[in-house]
Amino acid sequence: MNATIPAHELQQLIASGSVSLIDVLLPEDFACRHIAGAGNACVYEMVFLERIAECVPDPDRAVVVYDDSGTTLAARTAKEKLERAGYRNVAILEGGMQAWQAAGFEVESSAPVPPAAMVRDGVYRVDAEKSSVEWIGRNINNRHHGRIAISVGECVMENGRPLSGRFVLDMNTITNLDLQDEGWRSMLLRHLKSEDFFDVERYPTAAFELRGVTVIDGATPGTPNLEITGSLTIKETARSIRFPAMVAPLEDGTLKAHAAFDLDRTLWSVSYGSGKLYERLGMHLVNDLISVELFIVARKAI
Which of 57, 143, 174, 193 matches a 20 to 30 Å C-alpha distance to 33? Predict the structure, then answer.
């Protein structure tokens, strides 16, 4: 066979019984829709080749693999894996399942196609237990990382995107996750909570006010789809910030968001160890930038 095969030629091979057909996408997608007579071996799973061996034990048999659209690497990757494993006659269905259906050929289904996840307009409240704010601080020799709890947060969604929102961090909950020695960990946390850094006794909370979003054109799954703008207040100093984020609905109506970005802590008077504010720091030099990573889970208010 050639490296690719059009739908009408594949139909002839299936009718002659001379080919094994493999759907390389997720089992749940296979259950919803697949070419009649195809087997399923998901190319994204570590057990892909084991599934292939179950479906096609003879490496000399002709095999055609297909994905949904034929425009991504899914079927191509499956073909490469099969050839590395010793399969000698592997082709890709041109245009995937979509081309097969467009040609009017038969498909099978054992489960209904689930509706696309939608974002309903309204107020969404943050699930504090399932959400987290993670931080990383560094110097030239080392780094530390930890978490800060979200005490309360909510976001107003309109037309599928955030319109406004407010999120409050409890600075007393700052933790460290990398130091195993309790003495060193306690010392670091005392320092972070002191006036050298966040002065938690005087400023027990930090807050972010979401002011607007811009859609990122051409965003694909797994990349930021929105640019968030707003005001971050730390130690009673408010500064405008902007960062990319991924926001996506789940089938149960839950809203999830993820973002990762850097902040110059000195803009909020978190000054300890800054080389642009102090001299001859030696071992006390600390990078100005702090890395922040957000994992947000929110549910629509009743």
Answer: 57
Is 115 within a domain?
Answer: no
State the Cα–Cα distance between residues 22 and 41, nearest whole angstrom. Answer: 7
Residue where one domain finishes, among candidates 83, 108, 133: 108
- The encoded tokens of residue 65 equal 């693999």
Same domain membership, residue 145 and residue 223: yes
Block residue for tokens 């006010």: 209
Number of C-alpha atoms within 13 angstroms, CB side, residue 226?
A: 19
User: Furthest-apart CA pair in the chain: how many Å?
Assistant: 81
In tens, the pLDDT along 97-142 reads 999 999 999 899 877 777 778 889 999 999 999 999 999 999 999 9
CB 114, CB 21: distance < 8 Å: no
* CA distance between the termini of the chain: 58
Give me the domain span that covers residue 91: 4-108
220 Cβ neighbours under 8 A, 6+ residues apart: none
257 in the same domain as 132: yes
In a domain, 208, yes or no: yes
Dihedral sign for Cα 176, 180, 186, 191, please: negative
Residue with tokens 């504090």: 128
CA distances from 201 to 172, 197, 208 (A): 8, 11, 19
Neighbours of 111 (CB within 10 A): 11
pTM of the predicted model as reported, rounded to 2 decimal places? 0.89
What does the alpha-carbon distance between residue 127 and residue 91 come to, in Å, rounded to a whole number? 47
